[in-house]
Backbone:
């Protein structure tokens, strides 16, 4: 059974810092990996989708990398802002795409 | 609408009551997923539809949970005889593809169920 782990569970940084969130998964036979953002009391907002054949995706200040063989993905946030404060979740998609497995998330706080 | 819509946003149910949660996916999306999210945890898979066919219900925690998508668009998750451990946020997601994994999943705002 696929297990997804996110480290750290919580992170607090001053505004302007660059930061890295980590996601690891136990079964490398994945179809894709998706990073989401969740604000308190809200649903999930998709940030980046990486197909298994890709190594990274970029969107604005966000960059996500994928190393399937080692079962790892990182989300890099450049020049963090208070508006980036949220919980960040990674989810891996198996080949049948039926059952995205989520990590427990990293709760990020960016202080002004 | 432009996104996935769920209703109600909040539901308080007395223990033993039946509830029905609704999901309107993005128009034209083939795949629809239901997830359960406990406080402080990531979402846990419940069930998956491809059009009107329920292809995977392995995540439903008990036979009190039932989901349907009769016309391949709107879906309803029904919980019978609710119990306190059913209290959670129920998230619905849809994606355009039919299981190929090529497209993103888009989530609704969720329904927060509290069983008292």
Residues:
């Amino acid at each position: 059974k696929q297990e997804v782990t996110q480290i750290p569970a919580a992170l607090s940084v001053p505004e302007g810092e660059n930061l890295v969130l980590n996601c690891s998964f136990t079964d490398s036979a994945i179809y894709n990996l998706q990073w989401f953002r969740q604000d308190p009391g809200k649903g999930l907002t998709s940030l980046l989708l990486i197909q298994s054949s890709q190594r990274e995706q970029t969107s604005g200040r966000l960059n996500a990398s994928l190393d399937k063989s080692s079962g790892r993905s990182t989300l890099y946030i450049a020049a963090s802002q208070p508006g980036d404060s949220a919980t960040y979740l990674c989810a891996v998609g198996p080949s049948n795409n039926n059952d995205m497995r989520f990590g427990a998330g990293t709760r990020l706080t960016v202080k002004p | 609408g432009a996104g996935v819509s769920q209703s109600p946003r909040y539901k308080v149910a007395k223990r033993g009551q039946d509830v029905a949660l609704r999901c309107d996916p993005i128009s034209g999306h083939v795949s629809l997923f239901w997830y359960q999210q406990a406080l402080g945890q990531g979402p846990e898979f419940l069930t998956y539809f491809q059009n009107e066919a329920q292809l995977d219900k392995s995540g439903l925690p008990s036979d009190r949970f039932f989901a349907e998508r009769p016309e391949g668009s709107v879906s309803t998750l029904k919980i019978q005889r609710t119990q306190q451990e059913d209290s959670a946020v129920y998230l619905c997601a849809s994606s355009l593809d039919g299981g190929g994994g090529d497209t993103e999943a888009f989530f609704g705002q969720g329904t927060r169920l509290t069983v008292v």
